[in-house]
Specification:
Blueprint (H helix, E strand, L loop, with lengths): L12 E3 L8 H7 L9 H18 L5 E4 L3 H12 L5 E5 L3 H12 L3 E5 L4 E2 L2 E2 L8 H10 L5 E7 L1 E2 L4 E2 L2 H10 L5 E5 L18 E5 L11 E5 L1 H7 L11 H8 L10 H17 L1 H22 L2 E2 L11 E5 L6 H12 L1 E3 L10 E5 L6 H17 L8 H11 L5 H4 L2
Parallel strand pairs: 1-15, 3-4, 3-7, 7-10, 10-11
Antiparallel strand pairs: 2-12, 5-6, 8-9, 11-12, 13-14, 14-16
Helix pairs in contact: 1-9, 2-9, 5-6, 9-10, 10-12, 10-13, 11-12, 12-13
This protein binds pyridoxal-5'-phosphate.
Pyridoxal-5'-phosphate binds next to helix 3.
């Protein structure tokens, strides 16, 4: 029986890597009355959030906002710029890259899915490292007829806790003198991990509300480039609701061609005030620091971090591989039932092999310490042999590494 009347004391620890905990300030902003989406007040709100979200993406070009989950914005990205039978190169970094790949195939695009061969601890090698740009370069250099229309990569692979060097992917596309569009899923990267749309030469970026933006689920984004907008004028995949042209036109006045999710836009406005008020550099540094503290705990436990390349550790979440024979989902279930803390499940090819600790959204050193305590107690209760206390290691890290003052972060 569903027990929605069950009311534990204190707050639930929502440590999954999205939806992330929503700050009270944002929840309060969202409780304002829903207004006329064609009225003058709404236009002012629309123009403000559209200008703010450009700053978050670090772009001067249009950003389309959809009342949809991130998956909708994936479809929007593909259908706006591609035609049936077009060839696209995608890269398998994990489960989300695999889902985007599946979607592209379902839409009638010819996909090539690049990956590193091999596996370790029954985890595919490609799921432990970021995009190897040289594999993309080889593929593009061989495509002398320029049949490949787009290269699609995930910036922060939420299923593994691994980031990818997007600027490096841009460099190899340019080095190969290839006209393919660069499309990036930064659904969980945006507003937590450094993302620079214009500087990195990304043509279409996809993001969502419920990860780094600290909002509830239900809103998603496409950040565009002039080249992507030009491609959308001739692309032939069917698109109507997702079509950028009408959205961009109506957005001039701060309106949408359909009813936008007004209360989530209030929340977005508040989230942008918080993020831009703190400064993006400070936001990125704070997530790096949390990631390092959580990894200090995992190392002290003697467990393995899913990301095998320290250069691309995710500042958003950490994947923890379980010793052989331990069911990661059984550990998660115990921690949920005993300590009211949700951890991310292993998705797709790593189901049962690992769990994920989110360090994004409304969190701080002490909420992370509490989550790590829940993990440590749960691991011990599950019979996992730990080589030391991760909680002590994380406390030492956090106490010894004060958060940098905003003045020290100014570029
Ligand atoms: C969450 C997520 C998605 C899926 O977004 P939904 O909002 O669940 O549709 C896709 N890609 C990445 C990298 C994600 O983190």
């Amino acid at each position: 029986m569903l027990t929605l009347d069950f009311h534990p004391t204190g707050r639930h620890f929502l440590q999954i890597p999205g939806p992330s905990p929503v700050p009270d300030r944002i929840l309060r902003a969202m409780s304002l009355p829903t207004i006329d989406h064609r009225g003058p007040e709404f236009g002012a709100l629309g123009r403000k959030v559209l200008a703010d979200i450009q700053k978050i993406f670090q772009t001067r070009h249009p950003v389309a906002i959809y009342p949809a989950s991130g998956t909708g914005a994936w479809e929007a990205a593909l259908t706006n710029v591609l035609s049936p039978g077009d060839r696209v190169v995608m890269y398998e970094t994990g489960h989300f890259a695999s889902l985007w790949h599946k979607m592209a195939s379902r839409l009638g695009v010819q996909t090539e899915f690049l990956a590193l061969p091999g596996s370790e601890h029954a985890v595919p090698a490609s799921w432990r490292r970021g995009v190897q740009a040289d594999l993309i370069e080889q593929r593009l250099t061989a495509d002398t007829q320029h049949q490949i229309k787009a290269v699609c990569v995930v910036h922060n692979e939420t299923s593994t806790g691994v980031t990818s060097d997007i600027a490096a992917v841009r460099r190899v596309i340019d080095a190969a003198k290839h006209p393919a569009l660069l499309m990036v899923d930064t659904i969980s990267g945006l507003a937590s991990a450094d993302y620079r749309h214009d500087e990195w030469g990304v043509d279409v970026a996809v993001s969502g509300s419920q990860k780094g933006l600290m909002l509830p689920p239900g809103m998603s984004f496409n950040a565009l480039s002039p080249k992507a907008i030009a491609a959308s004028k001739t692309a032939k995949l069917p698109k109507a609701f997702w079509a950028w042209d009408e959205i961009i036109e109506m957005n001039q006045g701060g309106y949408w061609p359909y009813t936008p999710n007004t209360n989530l836009l209030y929340g977005l406005s508040e989230a942008c005030d918080m993020l831009l008020g703190q400064g993006l550099d400070a936001v990125f540094a704070r997530h790096q620091r949390w990631g390092e503290g959580v990894r200090a705990a995992v190392r002290a436990w003697g467990l393995e971090i899913q990301c095998a390349d320290p250069a691309v550790y995710s500042p958003v979440l950490t994947g923890v591989i379980m010793p052989e024979g331990v069911d990661a989902d059984a550990v998660r279930k115990l921690i949920y039932e005993r300590f009211d803390c949700s951890l991310g499940t292993g998705l797709g090819k790593v189901k049962g092999r690992m769990f994920r600790i989110g360090h994004l959204g409304d969190c701080n050193d002490l909420t992370l310490m509490a989550a790590l305590s829940g993990c440590e107690m749960g691991l011990k209760l599950s019979g996992v042999r730990l080589s030391g206390s991760g909680v002590l290691a994380a406390m030492e890290y956090f106490a010894g590494q004060p958060m940098a003052a905003p003045s020290q972060l100014a570029q």
